């Protein structure tokens, strides 16, 4: 079966769904939310999901340049345009060194773009401030070695001036959700790589981000651990009563991107721009050995090369 035929088949399936758009986050059955939220937050989220007039995130002609030691300007990213709607899982792929991680850091507000604008819910966020509605999971875990698991998870809540008892309750809940129960008082040096990344994911999720950014989060893990964590992230994202609404992941693993994503953004060599955006029209839950996954894999790998 060719990619075009499989797309046609899946498009027919998609048209049978409400609104003609299959969305795992909205269609997956959830008997209860794994992370309870108050009614106000739930109402807010449902309201936001209904408001499709404004994209959750927009990048308009975003360009990033650096000045080297000789004073020469080097363009890393050039005129990146991207619109992200609610309830999307997006992966960014491209050649090594093309600026994928830089793109994530600019979206988060850790770096400023040289030109262009980044908008969150229609409001410009290019002023050099970290977006409090986003959280990032790093490839290198980024844990504080002198803090325990629960202290690392609680860290982001302290700056939000949440009372200590509430911080502890919320952190214990998310620690249990990511499979770290019993390791609350352990230090990072006592954890495996997979457990360290679980702490990083828990620390990001505990602040209830609307957008979760992940920079090659599974690349340093063994295959079995990486597979388990992918499923954990999908489970959290697919629950419409909990955040995040959107996941944007940078990865070199194209098969991983196809399996997880609704849409894949393909960047060119530096100075990078968007070569193509590929919608992954495979109904969820997906089967890892699905023939259509490998057809998408071949198509996207050819575009990267």
Descriptive report:
The protein has 305 residues and is an alpha/beta fold. It folds into two domains: 1-30 and 46-133 and 211-235 and 244-305, Rossmann fold, CATH 3.40.50.300; 136-208, no CATH class. Helices cover 37% and strands 20% of the residues. The strands form two sheets. Strands 6-7-8-3-9-10 form a six-stranded mixed β-sheet, sandwiched between helices. A four-stranded antiparallel β-sheet has the order 2-1-4-5, covered by helices on one side. Helix 9 (254-260) packs across helix 10 (291-304). The two termini are 23 Å apart.
Quick description:
This protein has 305 residues and is α/β, with parallel strands linked by helices.
Short descriptors:
six-stranded mixed β-sheet; four-stranded antiparallel β-sheet; Rossmann fold; 10 strands; 10 helices; 2 domains
CATH homologous superfamily identity of the largest domain: P-loop containing nucleotide triphosphate hydrolases
Major β-sheet strand ordering: 6-7-8-3-9-10
As a percent range, the share of strand residues is 15-25%
Poorly predicted residue ranges: 1-24, 26-50
User: What is the mean pLDDT?
Assistant: 84
Main CATH class of the largest domain:
Alpha Beta
- Ends distance: 23 Å
Instruction: Tell how many strands the DSSP assignment holds.
Output: 10
Query: Biggest β-sheet, characterized?
Result: 6 strands, mixed
Structural class of the secondary structure composition? alpha/beta
> Under CATH, the topology of the largest domain is which?
Rossmann fold
H/E series, N to C? HHHEEEHEEEHHHEHEHEEH
User: In total, how many domains does the architecture comprise?
Assistant: 2
């Amino acid at each position: 079966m060719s990619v075009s035929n499989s797309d046609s088949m899946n498009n027919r399936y998609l048209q049978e769904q409400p609104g003609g758009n299959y969305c795992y986050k909205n269609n997956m059955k959830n008997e209860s939310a794994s992370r309870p939220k108050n009614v106000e937050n739930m109402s807010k989220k449902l309201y936001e999901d209904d408001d499709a007039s404004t994209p959750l995130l927009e990048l308009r002609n975003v360009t990033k340049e650096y000045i080297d030691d000789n004073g020469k300007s080097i363009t890393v990213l050039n005129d990146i345009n991207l619109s992200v709607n609610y309830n999307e899982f997006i992966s960014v792929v491209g050649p090594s060194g093309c600026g994928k991680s830089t793109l994530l850091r600019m979206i988060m507000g850790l770096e400023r773009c040289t030109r262009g604008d980044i908008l969150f819910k229609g409001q410009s966020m290019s002023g050099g401030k970290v977006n409090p509605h986003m959280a990032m999971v790093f490839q290198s875990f980024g844990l504080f070695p002198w803090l325990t698991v629960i202290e690392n998870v609680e860290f982001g809540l302290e700056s939000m001036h949440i009372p200590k008892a509430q911080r502890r309750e919320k952190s214990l809940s998310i620690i249990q959700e990511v499979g770290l129960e019993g390791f609350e008082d352990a230090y990072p040096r006592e954890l495996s790589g997979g457990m360290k990344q679980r702490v990083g994911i828990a620390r990001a999720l505990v602040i209830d981000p609307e957008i979760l950014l992940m920079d090659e989060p599974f690349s340093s893990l063994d295959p079995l651990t990486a597979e388990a964590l992918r499923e954990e992230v999908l489970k959290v994202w697919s629950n419409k009563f909990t955040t995040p609404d959107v996941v944007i992941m940078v990865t070199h693993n194209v098969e991983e991107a196809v399996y997880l994503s609704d849409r894949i953004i393909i960047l060119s060599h530096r100075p990078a721009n968007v070569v193509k955006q590929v919608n992954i029209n495979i109904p969820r839950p997906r089967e890892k050995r699905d023939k259509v996954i490998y057809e998408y894999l071949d198509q996207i790998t050819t575009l990267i090369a």
